[in-house]
Specification:
disordered N terminus, 0% strand, mainly alpha, Butyryl-CoA Dehydrogenase, subunit A, domain 3, 2 domains, Rna Polymerase Sigma Factor, Chain: A, elongated
Length: 257
Amino acid sequence: MSAGTSGALPAKALQARATEAYSTQAREAREEALILPHLPLVRHIVQKIAGHLGRHVDFGDLVSAGTLGLIKAAKAYDPGKHAQFRTYAYIRIRGAVLDELRGRCFASPEVNRLVRQVRQAHLVFQAEHGRPPDDEELAGRAGLSVEKLYRTMEEARRQHFLSIHGLTDEQPALGALLAADDTHSPEPRAERRELIERLTRAIQELPQRDRTLVLLYYERDLTMREIAETLGVTESRVSQMHAGALFRLSLKLGGAR
């Protein structure tokens, strides 16, 4: 064997390497074709989450976490096992953003006290009158101004944000319950149907304004700004309404503590 050919690989090894390189290139091209069109979805999800948390988080950090979730979704996506890629990616992106928030605390002891005070006032009023209070009645019973009540409800939303949006298995995400089902096992499907029935009844018992907002936000997946444009109110008012709707919904679902 000549010196020029002594280091050459056998033909089969060369073919295997070429095939592997081609497969890797093809896989990366498929992943890129999934990732690039869905980058706006990352910002959409982060905007929705940041709307709950105000200035408590860094928007850029959440976008980075969501983008990583999108990349992982593209790598793991199997059309034979998963729903449409957008649905699958939405879940993975949101999960990555929530993971970024894991372990953070957004409520002070004073906020916790006010939240408990408002919850207790709501329960007592309903027991006395046989109906839930409106915002003015609840504020009066809790000894707060209406504006202070709205701020407390928004803090309550921040406090319970991670559990409301399904960070743990014990608290299924409201958005996930209203989204398409990607579960194949009959037991989880049955459990999910029961949860949806409870959630549907609770939503139907909400005031019309709250029902509309919940469906626009979770079913139609609109942002706070888009809902504000739809309802003809300010974005800050939508935030107040959303916080109040979640507060009342949590009480109807047995979330009062």
